[in-house]
């Protein structure tokens, strides 16, 4: 049977080409791991939401004692847990408003809660009016304005975040429910402390309002994804560079260049220059396309210039990765396959298409450091979002640029070393 002979032949060829077989089997597995890590919550059904709290509350005097209901609310938010679970709903960071805004922009916080200066006075008014209504046997009706008498104090808690970010939508929804429950609990405590109460309905002295970070109110999910697409394009340079370097070896060009006593650094650094121009062109071209697709650009021409600089640094990282791939690839086809195997999962790992779960390992220079931050393209992406999406200047991206630059230099040195060891040695 001829078809059996063909089947045996093809099976032997597939097994013989182990690297291609490795690519075919491993590539889908990498996607499964990445998506499982991002959306599977690593086996947990609930996860805490990162919340930055800005407490302006000045406190008040109640029954002769100085109290601060803003501190009380912050503590409550840190203690509240999911129903029938030991998992806390929120990871609380108490900070100032400027830092809170920056945390939300960098996705270090899903949302921020701003407690106004008169929050304690509002809570005190709520307690007082509830007690009076209960002891007098009358009911105080809920109103939408919360201003029915001159001696009441109404406060508005502000829930702020990136309205185009899915994580903010989830967090603010939970937070609104918790805040409503907080007011109800204040009323219940007063009612339970007075004998014979019948559950007077409270006036809404404590309200909440949801708003976007200044300048982001009209943002969409695309405004968050667009810089990620730029980083994905920059990462794809690694596949092209790996294929071209491998072709240089296959065609004998590299052998002839070695005869001219050319050093590894000359050969590889010389290739960095034109590819850096390609990286800069990618940033500009994709930026123009994003604008045409409705990207809400912030920061003016300065942000675009900064984005090009950041893109070039990210491009050098990709070129360095291409060197490493070319050091191990057998031919151009295998270099392309291996490059794709590495680049696509790497794009997901740096958060180009969606936000990955928090994996904080510490802080450095006032910045939260996560596992992903040791990948240079993560810092490239953070900087592009900070300047293009949020309109930040040099101060907003300097840390990410510095981290990206340091990691790029390290990756370039590794790339030069490996390519030199495998491809630039004199042939005996």
TrEMBL record:
<feature type="transmembrane region" description="Helical">
    <location>
        <begin position="301"/>
        <end position="326"/>
    </location>
</feature>
<feature type="transmembrane region" description="Helical">
    <location>
        <begin position="267"/>
        <end position="295"/>
    </location>
</feature>
<feature type="transmembrane region" description="Helical">
    <location>
        <begin position="397"/>
        <end position="419"/>
    </location>
</feature>
<protein>
    <submittedName>
        <fullName>ABC-2 type transporter</fullName>
    </submittedName>
</protein>
<dbReference type="InterPro" id="IPR013525">
    <property type="entry name" value="ABC2_TM"/>
</dbReference>
<dbReference type="Pfam" id="PF12698">
    <property type="entry name" value="ABC2_membrane_3"/>
</dbReference>
<keyword id="KW-0812">Transmembrane</keyword>
<comment type="similarity">
    <text>Belongs to the ABC-2 integral membrane protein family.</text>
</comment>
<dbReference type="InterPro" id="IPR047817">
    <property type="entry name" value="ABC2_TM_bact-type"/>
</dbReference>
<dbReference type="GO" id="GO:0005886">
    <property type="term" value="C:plasma membrane"/>
</dbReference>
<keyword id="KW-1003">Cell membrane</keyword>
<keyword id="KW-1133">Transmembrane helix</keyword>
<feature type="transmembrane region" description="Helical">
    <location>
        <begin position="21"/>
        <end position="40"/>
    </location>
</feature>
<dbReference type="GO" id="GO:0140359">
    <property type="term" value="F:ABC-type transporter activity"/>
</dbReference>
<keyword id="KW-0472">Membrane</keyword>
<keyword id="KW-0813">Transport</keyword>
<feature type="domain" description="ABC transmembrane type-2">
    <location>
        <begin position="187"/>
        <end position="422"/>
    </location>
</feature>
<dbReference type="InterPro" id="IPR051449">
    <property type="entry name" value="ABC-2_transporter_component"/>
</dbReference>
<feature type="transmembrane region" description="Helical">
    <location>
        <begin position="224"/>
        <end position="246"/>
    </location>
</feature>
<feature type="transmembrane region" description="Helical">
    <location>
        <begin position="338"/>
        <end position="356"/>
    </location>
</feature>
């Amino acid at each position: 049977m001829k078809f059996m002979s063909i089947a045996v032949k093809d099976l032997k060829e597939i097994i013989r080409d182990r690297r291609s077989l490795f690519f075919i089997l491993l590539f889908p597995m990498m996607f499964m791991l990445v998506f499982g890590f991002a959306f599977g919550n690593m086996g947990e059904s609930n996860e805490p939401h990162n919340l930055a709290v800005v407490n302006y509350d000045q406190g008040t005097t109640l029954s002769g004692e100085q109290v601060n209901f803003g501190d009380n609310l912050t503590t409550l938010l840190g203690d509240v847990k999911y129903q029938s679970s030991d998992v806390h709903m929120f990871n609380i960071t108490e900070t100032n408003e400027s830092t809170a805004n920056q945390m939300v922009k960098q996705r270090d916080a899903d949302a921020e809660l701003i407690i106004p200066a008169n929050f304690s006075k509002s809570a005190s008014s709520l307690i007082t009016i509830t007690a009076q209504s209960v002891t007098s046997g009358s009911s105080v009706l809920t109103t939408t304005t919360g201003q029915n008498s001159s001696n009441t104090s109404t406060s508005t808690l502000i829930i702020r975040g990136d309205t185009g970010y899915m994580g903010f939508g989830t967090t603010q929804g939970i937070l609104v429910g918790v805040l409503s429950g907080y007011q109800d609990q204040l009323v219940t405590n007063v009612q339970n402390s007075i004998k014979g109460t019948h559950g007077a309905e409270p006036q809404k002295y404590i309200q909440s309002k949801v708003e976007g970070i200044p300048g982001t109110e009209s943002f969409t999910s695309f405004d968050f994804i667009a810089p990620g697409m730029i980083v994905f394009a920059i990462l794809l340079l690694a596949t092209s560079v790996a294929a071209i370097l491998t072709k240089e070896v296959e065609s004998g060009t590299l052998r002839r260049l070695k005869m001219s006593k050319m050093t590894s650094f000359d050969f590889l650094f010389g290739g960095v220059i034109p590819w850096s121009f390609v990286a800069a062109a990618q940033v500009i071209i994709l930026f123009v396309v994003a604008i045409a697709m409705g990207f809400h650009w912030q920061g003016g021409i300065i942000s675009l210039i900064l984005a090009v600089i950041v893109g070039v640094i990210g491009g050098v990282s990709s070129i360095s990765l291409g060197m490493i791939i070319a050091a191990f690839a057998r031919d151009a086809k295998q270099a392309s396959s291996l490059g794709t195997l590495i680049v696509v999962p790497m794009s997901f790992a740096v958060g180009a298409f969606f936000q990955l779960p928090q994996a904080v390992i510490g802080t450095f220079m006032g910045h939260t450091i996560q596992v992903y931050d040791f990948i240079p393209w993560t810092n490239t992406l953070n900087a592009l979002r900070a300047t293009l999406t949020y309109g930040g200047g040099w101060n907003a991206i300097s840390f990410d640029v510095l981290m990206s630059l340091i990691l790029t230099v390290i990756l370039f040195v590794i790339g030069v070393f490996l390519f030199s060891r495998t491809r630039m040695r004199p042939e005996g």
